[in-house]
Amino acid sequence: MQVLIVDDSQIMRKIITGALKKLGVNDILEASNGQEAIDTLGKDGNIGLVLMDWNMPTMTGIDAVKKIRLSNNKVPVVMVTTEAEKEKVIEAIKSGANDYLIKPFNPKDIQAKLEKFLQACAK
Amino acid sequence: MRAENINPFIESVAETFESMLECSVEAGDPVLNEDAEGTPDIIGVIGLSGTAQGIVALKLPVKTALAVIGKMIGVEIRGIDSSIIDGVGELVNIIAGNAKAKFEGHAISLSLPTVVRGSIYKLTNLSNTVWLTVPFESPLGEFSLSVCFKQAVQQEKEAVHASVNSR
Question: B42-50 and B35-38 as β-strands: parallel, antiparallel, unpaired?
Fold first, then answer.
């Protein structure tokens, strides 16, 4: 499965990439803001999962999720963010996000959670 | 800044280091100062806005920054490069984001983080606030977190209430 990681932090993209590779996922694309994510999704129809940060320059993750859903793209999107308040989680789910992962996370925890997301996406 | 407002930030530093770095930290006594000055080498700064306003500054000596960011990505880093700058920005973002969720009843937004390098600096606090600086010790090295914080709406309401009552 091809996974798109969207985060303005190069370090966070590296951490998530490392966790995905340990799960055997090597087909990984990266974007550093919401607009880049939309552009990448427009070019590549094989993306099976998007891991999306919230606060990013140019276009936030939540705005990108809204645009993705407006374009009728049903790709699963998991928010990976520091925005931990209940209201933010509700806003994300209402906007079309499928799941939510809050930073900070343990490297082992993120692997376990990503495995769960990947299994759900594969069904 | 009320002293209890520093607690969510101290808890957030401990939780972030514990979960992302599998490393415990020990917080020292907070120090109150009007302007934050010192000699750290890398400072990650992030702004808070909304029903509370503030600035959070994570200050790391180079040695600590190399150890912390190296541990985060699982590689040894020998010198300051873009990953260190990026990593310190992400770290202050996570610490501030985790802390703001602990302020119940507030709607607080984070700015994008900024990272500053240098050993001679002066961080000026928001008006009517002071910096509260907490030193930390960890197996990855020493560092500190400075916070200036004010609860905007509540303070305004209190000020209006006091003004009305004094008439």
Answer: unpaired
Closest CA to B64 of B140, B119, B130, B146: B140
Are the C-beta atoms of residues B27 and B135 closer than 8 Å to each other?
A: yes
State the nearest Cα–Cα gap between B89 and chain A, in angstroms. Answer: 8
CB B41 within 8 A of CB B117: yes
Tokens 């080498």 — which residue?
A: B41
Q: Is-contact A6 A52, C-beta < 8 A?
A: yes
Percent of chain B with pLDDT over 70: 84
Task: Tell me if A2 sits within 8 A of A27, measured CB to CB.
Answer: yes
ipTM of this complex: 0.86
Confidence band for A78, pLDDT divided at 50, 70 and 90: very high
- Quick check: B19 and A83 CB within 8 A? no
Chain A closest-CA separation from residue B94 CA (Å)? 6
